[in-house]
């Protein structure tokens, strides 16, 4: 299998399982309707585990543009393949969103709340403050990429790595996921959000593109932060990527402040 096809397939599978558990818990008239957050966190973790088992031997199973960028920054992945991987991952996210829609086809009509339908496909903040939301996504993704690099530096029994990676996703979900829904993966949010925008979902409402930059830019910068911290603390490396990451972090936070100021009065929850 081609590595780009593997990333496409693995991400689609991940999004089917991850989006599927959100739909199972939140859409009306499913047998799991009303289950709690831990079910969603476990579903996402097992979805990642399955995706890694499926294509890990072919492409390394990044399944996440932030992870691809992190591995390239750390010298573990060729820069020439980064654009192709990211495109494949986003397209896989779109297909994963479409498959989730098909899986729960009769349940969209009986679910009245538009926000609930959108939440199956993409993330949103529990409390809207763009600066805080960026910070949440950056911290969560920094833990992800640093964690993956930690895992990669240890030796495990053959076949155990995907389970460890899935456990990392569950840990992030239960510990850090409640603020923004822990996208921690631009393809996980952008791909299904595109699917939501193009699918004929019954009374679906808007796709909330005004927020979409947070789960895309936040994880990309967070992935850089996690990589730089790993390299700085464990390898003693301070290089151009450290400087680039600091600049990207500052600019992202400034963007959050600007977006807060441009938002409607009373829409943004104050931090201080």
TrEMBL record:
<feature type="transmembrane region" description="Helical">
    <location>
        <begin position="130"/>
        <end position="151"/>
    </location>
</feature>
<feature type="transmembrane region" description="Helical">
    <location>
        <begin position="6"/>
        <end position="25"/>
    </location>
</feature>
<dbReference type="Pfam" id="PF00230">
    <property type="entry name" value="MIP"/>
</dbReference>
<keyword id="KW-0472">Membrane</keyword>
<dbReference type="InterPro" id="IPR050363">
    <property type="entry name" value="MIP/Aquaporin"/>
</dbReference>
<keyword id="KW-0813">Transport</keyword>
<feature type="transmembrane region" description="Helical">
    <location>
        <begin position="82"/>
        <end position="104"/>
    </location>
</feature>
<feature type="transmembrane region" description="Helical">
    <location>
        <begin position="163"/>
        <end position="184"/>
    </location>
</feature>
<keyword id="KW-1133">Transmembrane helix</keyword>
<protein>
    <submittedName>
        <fullName>Aquaporin family protein</fullName>
    </submittedName>
</protein>
<dbReference type="InterPro" id="IPR023271">
    <property type="entry name" value="Aquaporin-like"/>
</dbReference>
<dbReference type="InterPro" id="IPR022357">
    <property type="entry name" value="MIP_CS"/>
</dbReference>
<dbReference type="InterPro" id="IPR000425">
    <property type="entry name" value="MIP"/>
</dbReference>
<feature type="transmembrane region" description="Helical">
    <location>
        <begin position="37"/>
        <end position="56"/>
    </location>
</feature>
<comment type="similarity">
    <text>Belongs to the MIP/aquaporin (TC 1.A.8) family.</text>
</comment>
<feature type="transmembrane region" description="Helical">
    <location>
        <begin position="240"/>
        <end position="258"/>
    </location>
</feature>
<feature type="transmembrane region" description="Helical">
    <location>
        <begin position="209"/>
        <end position="234"/>
    </location>
</feature>
<keyword id="KW-0812">Transmembrane</keyword>
């Amino acid at each position: 299998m081609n590595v780009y096809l593997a990333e496409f397939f693995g991400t689609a599978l991940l999004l089917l399982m991850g989006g599927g558990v959100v739909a199972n818990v939140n859409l009306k008239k499913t047998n799991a309707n009303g289950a709690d957050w831990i079910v969603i966190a476990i579903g996402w973790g097992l979805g990642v585990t399955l995706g890694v088992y499926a294509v890990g031997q072919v492409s390394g199973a990044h399944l996440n543009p932030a992870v691809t960028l992190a591995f390239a920054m750390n010298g573990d992945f060729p820069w020439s393949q980064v654009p192709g991987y990211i495109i494949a991952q986003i397209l896989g996210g779109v297909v994963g969103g479409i498959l989730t829609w098909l899986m729960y086809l009769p349940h969209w009509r009986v679910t009245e709340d538009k926000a609930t339908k959108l939440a199956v496909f993409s993330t949103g903040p529990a409390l809207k403050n763009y600066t805080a939301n960026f910070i949440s996504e950056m911290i969560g993704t920094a833990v992800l990429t640093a964690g993956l690099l930690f895992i990669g530096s240890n030796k495990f029994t053959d076949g155990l790595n995907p389970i460890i990676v899935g456990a990392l996703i569950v840990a992030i979900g239960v510990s850090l996921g409640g603020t923004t829904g822990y996208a921690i993966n631009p393809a996980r949010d952008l791909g299904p959000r595109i699917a939501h925008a193009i699918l004929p979902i019954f009374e679906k409402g808007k796709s909330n593109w005004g927020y979409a930059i947070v789960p895309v830019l936040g994880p990309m910068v967070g992935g850089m932060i996690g990589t730089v911290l790993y390299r700085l603390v464990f390898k003693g490396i301070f290089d151009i990527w450290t400087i680039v990451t600091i600049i990207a972090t500052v600019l992202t936070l400034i963007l959050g402040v600007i977006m807060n100021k441009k938002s409607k009065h009373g829409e943004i929850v104050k931090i201080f």
